[in-house]
Each structure stands twice: as structure tokens, then as C-alpha cells.
Amino acid sequence: AADVDLEFLAKATKGFSGADLTEICQRACKLAIRECIEKEINNSDSMQDDQDPVPEITRAHFEESMAFARKSVSENDIRKYEMFFQILANLITDPLLNHLLLSTKICTLN
Fold it and tell me: Fewer CB within 10 Å of terminal CB in the chain, N or C?
């Protein structure tokens, strides 16, 4: 929807996982569907068959959805993933490090 500020959503969900973001979007969608059903019930006589009472997910739906949002990944977990990514990136670009890590098996993140 035009009134959804994606930049604000991105900042507000920093550190959220893909699953967390999916949950926020699904909840916003369900809120829009609930609103649509309520409007159809309340205005059943005055609405035309082809008229959609809630044609899109709005900022209000996302704002309500964000009230329930939470991170499922801790900052510590993110640091572990970043360290693991760095190790893998070095494996690809540094043949000596690649050999060292594979031969000594120090590539663990405990």
C-alpha cells in the first residue's frame, strides 16, 4: 500500500529473521481480512458484489501487527552467524586458511 513506510519497517525490524518478518506480514494480512469480513457483515445491504471493503493491507494493519512483533534470534546468535560467514568467506578466498582449517578442524563455533 502507498501509506506503508518500508524504510520505517526496515529500521523497526533490524535484527529480525526472515521468519519474524513473515509473521509480521502474515499478521497484517489476517488483520486486513478480518477488517474486510467485519465491513462486509456490517454493510451487507449497501455494498455491491464487486466492491472490496479493504482493497489493500494498510499502514494501520502493519502498525497493529508490529505491536506483537518480536525477535526470535538473539544478538549473540547473530554474532555467531557473522563469525561463521566470515570463516566461510575466508575459506573461499584464502587457500592457506582453507587448508589450515580443514586439516586442524578448528572450524567450530561453541
Answer: C
pTM of this structure:
0.67
Report d(CA 13, CA 86) in Å as an integer.
23
Average pLDDT along the chain, 110 residues, taken 10 residues at a time: 88 91 95 89 69 82 94 90 84 71 54
CA–CA dist 61, 27 (Å, integer):
8
| Amino acid identity for residue 98 in this structure | N
3-state helix, strand, coil in the chain (%, to 5): 65, 0, 35
Type of residue at 94: D
Question: Residue 101: what pLDDT?
Answer: 63
How far is it, in rounded angstroms, from Cα 54 to Cα 69? 23
31: nearest Cα among 69, 72, 71, 73: 69
- Amino acid type, 92: I
Nearest Cα neighbor of 18 from 55, 64, 73, 56 is 73
